[in-house]
Amino acid sequence: MRQNLTPDEALELLLTHAEPITELETVPLEAALGRVLGADLASQVDHPDCDNTAVDGYAARAADTQGATRERPVRLRLIGEAPAGRPFPARVGPGEAVAVYTGAPLPEGADAVVRVEETARDGDTVLLFAPASPKDIRPRAEDLEQGQVYLRKGEVLSPGKVGLAAAMGYPRLPVVRRPRVGLLVTGDEVVEPGEALPYGGVYNANRYSVGALVREAGGEVVYLGKAGDDREALKARLAAAGPLDLLLTSGGVSMGAYDLVRRLLEEEGRVHFWRVSIRPGGPLLFGEWRGVPLLGLPGNPVSSMVTFFLFGRPFLFRLLGRVDAPYRRVRAVAETPFKDAGARTAFWRGVLEYAPEAPGGFRVRSVGNQSSGVLRSMSEANALVVVPPGRRVGVGEVVEAIVLRPEL
Ligand SMILES: Nc1nc2c(c(=O)[nH]1)N[C@H]1C(S)=C(S)[C@@H](COP(=O)(O)OP(=O)(O)OC[C@H]3O[C@@H](n4cnc5c(N)ncnc54)[C@H](O)[C@@H]3O)O[C@H]1N2
Ligand code: MOO
Questions:
Q1: Looking at domain 329-403, which of 2.60.40.2890, 3.40.50.720, 2.40.340.10, 1.10.3210.10 is its CATH number?
Q2: In this protein, which residues make up the domain named MoaB/Mog (predicted)?
Q3: 120-153: b or e for each residue (b if 16 or more CB lie within 10 Å)?
Q4: CB distance 312 to ligand 1 below 6 Å
Q5: Which CATH architecture has domain 52-138?
Q6: Which residues are within 8 A (CB) of 14 and not within 5 positions of it... i.e. 6 or more apart?
Q7: What is the DSSP letter of 307?
Q8: CATH for 24-46+157-176, options being 1.10.260.40, 3.90.105.10, 2.40.160.10, 3.30.70.3450
């Protein structure tokens, strides 16, 4: 077992135990948002599939319309119309025009379009006040070329990518199976919201906060319930879990006599590392239980969320084969001081705001109370300010911040 790792060492070691999931599922487009694409996708079609018009107007031969102005309109003979999806059945000859509507295939023989605003109708005659131009034609395959790969394995399906997959002709998409993440809480004092709170009790916040972070990172939560501070109960819960890709526990990893997750792994499983030089979350544990990687999150509500975000989230990204980074880092100007955490790296909760005039383009202030028991701070924070060992940050200094909330 290794102890007192730096955050970078801990993350590196952790990721060596993350085996990317190879099983794929097929989901309909409506269910694809946020899923990770399991294969490269090539377009099944050209889009557009033929030259078409980008405007409502008239298609004609450019050569016939040269020099047209309001004072000296060019007159063409209207021979029919082509709404979108209904190609014009004949050829446009010299001196002729066809009424076209946005998206309609360009009629054969025509090589230019004039916008309807630049025209007037006089029975079967169209008056053009400007020359027809090829600029308003969208060439075949301008967007997508059949056989070209536009979406790649490991990409997360955003609204734009779901739309693109539809445009390429796919009704269903191959996606990576969601990692099954077991979540177990420990502590005799922990009770479910809705129950009466006994003296010294605390509502089970970690089940819901960490569970939400797991889902946000693309995992599926398998809640394993609460094990009291009792080893046999804990083992029974773990045994009932079914197949899992990652086990998370909350609590029971620090120094107390009741810190049973750590002892259980030490005696009957494996511990890869225990304790990382960070605040909050120093007692973080990583090991293995019956072949399943186990991340033992410290029980303090802030610590369990922060350590999941910094370590559990990158682990899930690796399992999912995601090609995007698990979090974004920005530079920001400190609006409040941030204290040091001695020889540890601090990840203090901050409120980050867009500030185009500031170096880095952001400013950040502390949420105030940085105690690991103050969960209010996580509800307010949208970033973690990184303070390297032994360094404190004064007002006006530039710091690095990890973005917690995707909407920022
Ligand atoms: N002598 C030492 N004591 C402690 C140390 C240390 O180094 N030496 N480290 C402290 C740090 S840092 C942390 S973090 C905690 C971590 O302790 P555990 O992981 O063993 O967690 P617990 O003791 O079980 O709980 C800590 C705290 O969090 C509350 N909690 C637990 N589970 C939940 C939950 N599901 N929902 C809401 N709140 C929860 C629990 O009631 C405790 O107040 O250890 C320090 N001690
Ligand atoms: O580091 Mo503990 O995680 O402060 O509360």
A1: 2.40.340.10
A2: 182-318
A3: eeeeeebebbbbbbeebbbebbeebeeeeebbeb
A4: no
A5: Beta Complex (2.170)
A6: 272, 286, 295, 311, 314, 315
A7: H
A8: 3.90.105.10
CA–CA gap between residue 250 and residue 261 (Å, rounded): 9
In the chain, residues under CATH classification 3.40.980.10 are 2-22+178-320
Burial of 228 (0-12, 13-18, 19+ CB in 10 A): middle
Residue ranges matching CATH 2.40.340.10 in the chain: 329-403
Q: Does domain 2-22+178-320 have CATH number 3.40.980.10?
A: yes
Q: Helix, strand, or coil here: 265?
A: helix
Q: Give this prediction's pTM.
A: 0.93
- Which residues in the chain are classed under CATH 3.90.105.10? 24-46+157-176
For ligand 2, whether the C-beta of 318 sits within 6 Å is no
- For residue 373, the CA-to-ligand 2 centroid distance in Å is 8
Pocket test of ligand 1: the residue of 300, 347, 370 to mutate, having most ligand atoms within 8 Å of its CB, is 300
As a whole number of angstroms, the distance between CA 216 and CA 102 comes to: 40
Q: What six digits make up the tokens of 354?
A: 């867009």
Looking at residue 249, its pLDDT comes to 94
Rounded average pLDDT per 10-residue block, the chain, 408 residues:
95 98 98 98 97 96 97 97 88 97 95 97 97 96 98 98 98 98 94 97 98 98 89 86 94 81 90 96 96 96 98 98 97 97 97 95 96 96 97 96 92
pLDDT digits (tens, 9 = 90+) for 84-122: 888 899 999 999 999 999 999 999 999 999 999 999 999
ipTM: 0.97
Residues 183/211, Cβ–Cβ less than 8 Å: yes
